[in-house]
Amino acid sequence: MRQYSADLTPPWKKPQPVPEVPADPGLVVEEPGTGFCGAVIRCEAGTVTLEDRFGKHRVFPLEPRGFLLEGRAVTLVRPAAGPARPARTASGSVAVPGARARVARAGRIYVEGRHDAELVEKVWGDDLRIEGVVVEYLEGVDHLPSIVTDFAPGPDARLGVLVDHLVPGSKEFHIARSVTSDHALVVGHPYIDIWEAVKPASLGIPEWPRVPRGQDWKTGVCRALGWPSDNTGAVWQAILKRVHSYKDLEPELLGRVEELIDFVTGSGGA
């Protein structure tokens, strides 16, 4: 019987070529088979060592299509010899490969809700771990006075708070003023919700829609953009995946978060 060796796999089912990316120290990738995500700390012949946010190390083989970079398959290769440009964290800071997380400070940063905390973690997480700053959330600005009272901020335990929609005359504005002190700093951005601090261009939309007063903002936004309005949590996760660095966020948020980090880690905040 005659043998045929022709490849009959349809073109659309064949693996597509993926980019080769140097495994430079500090590069953050995910190994899809295990879900392990970490920064490159070492690349040797045939293997790469990653360190996750908890300081755990894992060694993986350098295989084709073996890793995900910002959600896309890549092939890691040994970096070329010679000096490399310093790696950057998502916040734009110079990365410190192999740095251990500092023991948590007494000071804290509070944000309004879980979505705020997830966004801060994604962009500033590396910086915060090196500085030993823990981020917690309020579940609403109405809880801020009692949290500040219980926390009792002082010279050795500063408290920083990020508030949504902090505009003069608002309820949030008056609450923020009532708890601000030398050791408690409350700053805010002008956006109704942290979603709005993500640049529309990063999401492929022309702008954030206006939602009439009295209507739930997230629900109104989803309806206006044709997104599923019955599961705003899933929509948020889709938004968060499109945020890769500080470049995807509005300056009004960037400045406020950097201000809080400086305040909590500054002189008297350790």
UniProtKB/TrEMBL annotation:
Pfam families: DUF3097_C (PF11296), DUF3097_N (PF22845). This is DUF3097 domain-containing protein. Residues 20-79, 108-265 form the DUF3097 domain. It comes from Streptomyces murinus. InterPro entries: DUF3097_C, DUF3097_N.
